[in-house]
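User: Teach me something about this protein's shape.
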Amino acid sequence: MRAIALIAVALAGCTAQADGALREGSSAAAPAPVTLAGEWRVAGIDGEPFDQDYGIALSATADEIWWEPRCAGILRRYRIDGDAVTMMPPEPPPAQDDLPRPPPALCTIGVPVGVERAFVALDAAETITRTPQNGIELLGGGHSLTLFSQ
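Assistant: First, the predicted structure itself:
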């Protein structure tokens, strides 16, 4: 009887060790996000940390992502399908009563170089993944953009 108890304890220990090894060494990636809706901080551009004396925040809905102020016109529409992402230019404003479409209202503001670089990477994006640190990484065309939720 004692031998059976020792075997049971030994087997339980082996199972726990094997189970722990699977969890710790698991290569299963977190699922890709289905939306970018929310507020984001740019943490990296093209594989380098974004470490400047200013930060870049992006806002997004279920189908658009932009840099504030929105009147600066730095906006993209996007679509996520699995781990694929497609970036598109913004929709023009709708015509009103058969009148020509007015140009979008733009504000004159200096755009930091980091914002321009972030949108170059965003425009090139083809895939979207979740990082081990629970950030979002957009990759494509030799560029990358890493975002963290704010």
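Now, about its shape. DSSP finds two helices and nine strands in the chain. Helices lie at 2-24, 113-124. If you'd like, I can walk through any region in more detail.
User: That's plenty for now, thanks!
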